[in-house]
Design goal:
Elements lengths: L1 H35 L5 E11 L5 E13 L3 E10 L7 E6 L6 E7 L4 E4 L27 E11 L2 E10 L6 E9 L4 E9 L4 E11 L4 E10 L5 E10 L19
Antiparallel strand pairs: 1-2, 1-13, 2-3, 3-4, 4-5, 5-6, 7-8, 8-9, 9-10, 10-11, 11-12, 12-13
Length: 258
Protein backbone atom coordinates (compact mmCIF):
# COMPACT_ATOMS: atom_id res chain seq x y z
CA UNK A 1 0.00 0.00 0.00
CA UNK A 2 2.81 2.39 0.90
CA UNK A 3 4.46 1.71 -2.44
CA UNK A 4 1.24 2.60 -4.24
CA UNK A 5 0.98 5.83 -2.25
CA UNK A 6 4.60 6.75 -2.99
CA UNK A 7 4.17 6.01 -6.70
CA UNK A 8 0.98 8.08 -6.86
CA UNK A 9 2.66 10.95 -5.02
CA UNK A 10 5.65 10.78 -7.35
CA UNK A 11 3.37 10.89 -10.39
CA UNK A 12 1.51 13.91 -9.05
CA UNK A 13 4.75 15.76 -8.32
CA UNK A 14 6.12 14.87 -11.75
CA UNK A 15 2.95 16.12 -13.44
CA UNK A 16 3.23 19.38 -11.52
CA UNK A 17 6.85 19.83 -12.57
CA UNK A 18 6.04 19.14 -16.22
CA UNK A 19 3.12 21.58 -16.13
CA UNK A 20 5.35 24.22 -14.57
CA UNK A 21 8.04 23.58 -17.17
CA UNK A 22 5.49 23.86 -19.99
CA UNK A 23 4.24 27.16 -18.57
CA UNK A 24 7.77 28.56 -18.28
CA UNK A 25 8.71 27.36 -21.75
CA UNK A 26 5.54 28.87 -23.16
CA UNK A 27 6.35 32.20 -21.55
CA UNK A 28 9.91 32.14 -22.90
CA UNK A 29 8.64 31.41 -26.42
CA UNK A 30 6.17 34.30 -26.19
CA UNK A 31 8.89 36.62 -24.90
CA UNK A 32 11.28 35.69 -27.71
CA UNK A 33 8.67 36.29 -30.41
CA UNK A 34 7.92 39.71 -28.95
CA UNK A 35 11.61 40.56 -28.81
CA UNK A 36 11.84 39.75 -32.52
CA UNK A 37 8.97 42.13 -33.26
CA UNK A 38 10.22 45.01 -31.11
CA UNK A 39 12.71 47.83 -31.51
CA UNK A 40 11.01 49.91 -34.21
CA UNK A 41 10.44 52.90 -31.86
CA UNK A 42 7.79 54.40 -34.15
CA UNK A 43 6.44 53.93 -37.64
CA UNK A 44 3.75 54.80 -40.14
CA UNK A 45 2.22 52.36 -42.61
CA UNK A 46 -0.77 52.00 -44.89
CA UNK A 47 -3.20 49.12 -44.66
CA UNK A 48 -5.36 47.72 -47.44
CA UNK A 49 -8.23 45.67 -46.04
CA UNK A 50 -10.47 43.37 -48.06
CA UNK A 51 -13.56 42.10 -46.24
CA UNK A 52 -15.36 39.15 -47.84
CA UNK A 53 -18.83 38.09 -46.72
CA UNK A 54 -20.17 34.55 -46.67
CA UNK A 55 -21.88 35.15 -50.04
CA UNK A 56 -18.53 35.99 -51.65
CA UNK A 57 -19.16 39.72 -51.94
CA UNK A 58 -16.08 41.79 -51.06
CA UNK A 59 -15.46 45.41 -50.18
CA UNK A 60 -12.32 47.36 -49.34
CA UNK A 61 -11.07 49.71 -46.67
CA UNK A 62 -7.92 51.81 -46.67
CA UNK A 63 -6.33 52.77 -43.37
CA UNK A 64 -3.37 54.84 -42.22
CA UNK A 65 -1.76 53.46 -39.09
CA UNK A 66 0.66 55.13 -36.66
CA UNK A 67 2.57 53.20 -34.00
CA UNK A 68 4.54 54.48 -31.02
CA UNK A 69 6.53 51.84 -29.15
CA UNK A 70 6.18 51.63 -25.37
CA UNK A 71 8.10 49.65 -22.72
CA UNK A 72 7.55 45.92 -22.16
CA UNK A 73 6.46 44.98 -25.70
CA UNK A 74 3.54 47.39 -25.77
CA UNK A 75 2.62 50.25 -28.07
CA UNK A 76 0.20 53.08 -28.67
CA UNK A 77 -1.56 53.08 -32.02
CA UNK A 78 -3.76 55.40 -34.06
CA UNK A 79 -5.69 54.03 -37.04
CA UNK A 80 -7.32 56.48 -39.47
CA UNK A 81 -9.74 55.26 -42.14
CA UNK A 82 -9.42 56.93 -45.55
CA UNK A 83 -11.78 54.83 -47.68
CA UNK A 84 -14.59 54.17 -48.39
CA UNK A 85 -16.47 57.43 -47.97
CA UNK A 86 -18.91 56.10 -45.37
CA UNK A 87 -16.09 55.42 -42.89
CA UNK A 88 -13.63 58.14 -43.97
CA UNK A 89 -12.26 60.00 -40.95
CA UNK A 90 -13.09 57.24 -38.47
CA UNK A 91 -10.21 56.94 -36.01
CA UNK A 92 -9.25 54.50 -33.30
CA UNK A 93 -6.72 55.01 -30.52
CA UNK A 94 -5.32 52.16 -28.41
CA UNK A 95 -2.97 52.16 -25.45
CA UNK A 96 -2.09 49.66 -22.69
CA UNK A 97 -4.13 50.00 -19.52
CA UNK A 98 -2.62 50.32 -16.07
CA UNK A 99 -3.22 46.66 -15.18
CA UNK A 100 -1.76 45.49 -18.50
CA UNK A 101 -4.41 42.80 -19.03
CA UNK A 102 -6.43 44.64 -21.69
CA UNK A 103 -5.96 47.77 -23.80
CA UNK A 104 -7.84 51.03 -23.44
CA UNK A 105 -9.44 51.89 -26.78
CA UNK A 106 -11.38 54.85 -28.14
CA UNK A 107 -13.26 55.23 -31.41
CA UNK A 108 -13.96 58.58 -33.08
CA UNK A 109 -17.00 58.58 -35.37
CA UNK A 110 -16.98 61.65 -37.66
CA UNK A 111 -20.65 61.30 -38.61
CA UNK A 112 -21.52 61.89 -34.95
CA UNK A 113 -18.50 64.12 -34.18
CA UNK A 114 -18.17 61.97 -31.11
CA UNK A 115 -15.49 59.89 -29.41
CA UNK A 116 -16.56 56.85 -27.43
CA UNK A 117 -14.53 54.57 -25.24
CA UNK A 118 -14.80 50.87 -26.06
CA UNK A 119 -16.02 49.11 -22.93
CA UNK A 120 -14.07 46.03 -21.88
CA UNK A 121 -17.12 43.81 -22.32
CA UNK A 122 -17.44 44.99 -25.96
CA UNK A 123 -13.85 44.35 -27.05
CA UNK A 124 -14.67 40.85 -28.24
CA UNK A 125 -16.93 42.41 -30.87
CA UNK A 126 -15.96 42.85 -34.56
CA UNK A 127 -13.79 45.80 -35.54
CA UNK A 128 -15.38 47.85 -38.35
CA UNK A 129 -17.12 44.85 -39.88
CA UNK A 130 -13.95 42.75 -40.12
CA UNK A 131 -13.15 39.31 -38.70
CA UNK A 132 -10.80 40.99 -36.23
CA UNK A 133 -12.10 41.80 -32.78
CA UNK A 134 -11.18 45.01 -30.99
CA UNK A 135 -9.11 42.93 -28.58
CA UNK A 136 -7.07 41.57 -31.52
CA UNK A 137 -5.82 45.08 -32.27
CA UNK A 138 -4.24 45.75 -28.91
CA UNK A 139 -0.61 45.65 -27.89
CA UNK A 140 1.28 42.42 -27.24
CA UNK A 141 2.18 42.81 -23.60
CA UNK A 142 3.11 39.47 -22.09
CA UNK A 143 0.91 40.13 -19.06
CA UNK A 144 -2.26 39.90 -21.17
CA UNK A 145 -1.99 36.09 -21.30
CA UNK A 146 -0.78 33.07 -19.43
CA UNK A 147 1.10 30.55 -21.53
CA UNK A 148 1.66 26.85 -22.09
CA UNK A 149 3.99 25.06 -24.47
CA UNK A 150 1.94 22.69 -26.61
CA UNK A 151 4.62 20.69 -28.42
CA UNK A 152 5.73 20.91 -32.05
CA UNK A 153 3.99 20.53 -35.41
CA UNK A 154 4.84 21.01 -39.07
CA UNK A 155 3.13 23.63 -41.24
CA UNK A 156 4.04 24.20 -44.88
CA UNK A 157 7.29 22.33 -44.32
CA UNK A 158 8.26 24.52 -41.36
CA UNK A 159 8.77 23.14 -37.85
CA UNK A 160 6.62 25.13 -35.47
CA UNK A 161 6.46 25.50 -31.70
CA UNK A 162 2.86 25.45 -30.47
CA UNK A 163 2.18 28.26 -28.02
CA UNK A 164 -1.10 28.13 -26.08
CA UNK A 165 -2.18 31.59 -24.92
CA UNK A 166 -4.92 32.01 -22.30
CA UNK A 167 -6.35 35.54 -21.89
CA UNK A 168 -6.17 37.00 -18.40
CA UNK A 169 -9.10 39.37 -18.94
CA UNK A 170 -12.49 37.88 -18.08
CA UNK A 171 -13.97 39.98 -20.88
CA UNK A 172 -12.01 38.27 -23.65
CA UNK A 173 -14.07 36.44 -26.24
CA UNK A 174 -11.50 33.64 -26.37
CA UNK A 175 -10.92 30.55 -24.28
CA UNK A 176 -7.41 30.42 -25.74
CA UNK A 177 -5.35 31.13 -28.84
CA UNK A 178 -3.12 28.47 -30.35
CA UNK A 179 -0.18 30.25 -31.98
CA UNK A 180 2.20 28.40 -34.30
CA UNK A 181 5.71 29.85 -34.02
CA UNK A 182 8.23 29.24 -36.81
CA UNK A 183 11.05 27.60 -34.82
CA UNK A 184 13.83 28.96 -37.05
CA UNK A 185 12.67 32.58 -37.14
CA UNK A 186 10.81 32.56 -33.80
CA UNK A 187 7.90 34.43 -35.35
CA UNK A 188 4.19 33.56 -35.51
CA UNK A 189 2.90 32.29 -38.86
CA UNK A 190 -0.46 30.74 -38.00
CA UNK A 191 -2.99 30.99 -35.17
CA UNK A 192 -6.21 29.23 -34.19
CA UNK A 193 -8.75 31.09 -32.03
CA UNK A 194 -11.10 29.18 -29.73
CA UNK A 195 -14.21 30.80 -28.27
CA UNK A 196 -15.44 30.57 -24.68
CA UNK A 197 -16.94 27.15 -25.40
CA UNK A 198 -13.49 26.03 -26.56
CA UNK A 199 -14.72 25.73 -30.14
CA UNK A 200 -12.59 26.82 -33.08
CA UNK A 201 -13.98 30.13 -34.31
CA UNK A 202 -11.32 31.51 -36.68
CA UNK A 203 -7.85 30.94 -38.07
CA UNK A 204 -5.19 33.47 -38.96
CA UNK A 205 -2.39 33.12 -41.49
CA UNK A 206 0.37 35.68 -41.09
CA UNK A 207 3.35 36.87 -43.09
CA UNK A 208 6.02 39.04 -41.49
CA UNK A 209 8.57 41.26 -43.19
CA UNK A 210 12.16 41.40 -41.97
CA UNK A 211 13.44 44.93 -41.35
CA UNK A 212 16.84 43.88 -40.04
CA UNK A 213 16.64 44.15 -36.27
CA UNK A 214 12.92 43.41 -36.10
CA UNK A 215 10.02 41.99 -38.10
CA UNK A 216 6.51 43.36 -38.58
CA UNK A 217 3.33 42.02 -40.17
CA UNK A 218 3.10 42.45 -43.95
CA UNK A 219 0.02 40.34 -44.68
CA UNK A 220 -2.69 38.73 -42.60
CA UNK A 221 -5.65 36.55 -43.59
CA UNK A 222 -8.36 35.81 -41.04
CA UNK A 223 -10.99 33.19 -41.88
CA UNK A 224 -14.06 32.72 -39.71
CA UNK A 225 -14.64 28.97 -39.44
CA UNK A 226 -18.27 29.39 -38.40
CA UNK A 227 -19.54 31.99 -40.89
CA UNK A 228 -17.11 31.62 -43.80
CA UNK A 229 -16.31 35.33 -43.73
CA UNK A 230 -12.75 36.44 -44.36
CA UNK A 231 -10.58 39.51 -43.85
CA UNK A 232 -7.27 40.09 -45.63
CA UNK A 233 -4.95 42.92 -44.57
CA UNK A 234 -1.82 44.03 -46.42
CA UNK A 235 0.63 46.53 -44.89
CA UNK A 236 2.68 48.73 -47.23
CA UNK A 237 4.68 51.98 -47.42
CA UNK A 238 6.36 51.58 -44.04
CA UNK A 239 8.07 54.76 -42.82
CA UNK A 240 10.24 54.57 -39.69
CA UNK A 241 11.39 58.18 -39.96
CA UNK A 242 7.93 59.69 -39.93
CA UNK A 243 7.58 62.82 -37.83
CA UNK A 244 4.90 61.83 -35.34
CA UNK A 245 3.98 64.36 -32.68
CA UNK A 246 3.57 62.22 -29.56
CA UNK A 247 0.91 64.56 -28.20
CA UNK A 248 -1.60 62.94 -30.56
CA UNK A 249 -1.25 59.59 -28.77
CA UNK A 250 -3.75 60.70 -26.18
CA UNK A 251 -7.43 59.89 -25.77
CA UNK A 252 -8.31 63.59 -25.63
CA UNK A 253 -6.32 64.61 -28.72
CA UNK A 254 -6.10 61.73 -31.24
CA UNK A 255 -9.33 62.70 -33.01
CA UNK A 256 -7.67 65.96 -34.22
CA UNK A 257 -4.88 64.08 -36.04
CA UNK A 258 -5.10 64.24 -39.86
Amino acid sequence: MKNIIYISLFCLISMGIYAQNDAQKGYEIAKKTQENMSGYKKYYAEMDMVLTKENGKSFQRKVKTYHLEQPNFSEKTINIFDEPADVKGTKMFSQPDEKNTVDDQWLFLPALSKTKRIANENKSGPFMGSELAFEDLGSNKLTKFTYQFGGTKIRNGRECLILLMFPVSKYSGYHHVESWIDKERMLPIYSRYFDKRNELVKVLEEELRDFGKFSLPSKMKVHNEKTGRETVIVWKNFNFNVNIDEKFFNANVFETMN
